[in-house]
Specification:
Length: about 90
């Protein structure tokens, strides 16, 4: 499972929420609307990923990041660092 690192300790996410005029609960609801499964992201997870301080999470699953960015109507890479291509090689 791929985890992504949020940029700027979540500041770009919070700024996008402010631009759209949505709360964390409203963002969670928007993720359900864009999720083909209809599940979306829980309010608790939105709070962790968009929050700051001790309770904030700097990493989240790719699916969570995608749903948040899509619900914010912004590119994923504006809010999360993209994983780099692995250059690891297996020695034989």
């Amino acid at each position: 499972m791929t985890d992504l690192l949020r940029k700027g300790e979540g500041k770009p996410l919070r700024e996008a929420m402010k631009r759209l005029g949505v709360t964390q609960a409203e963002l969670a609801a928007r993720t359900r609307e864009v999720d083909v499964r209809g599940q979306g992201v829980s309010v608790a997870t939105v709070i962790k990923v968009t929050g700051r301080g001790k309770t904030a999470a700097d990493r989240c699953r790719l699916r969570t990041a995608w749903l948040l960015a899509t619900a914010l109507e912004e590119p994923l890479q504006d809010h999360f660092d993209m994983p780099s291509v692995s250059t690891d090689t297996v020695g034989r």
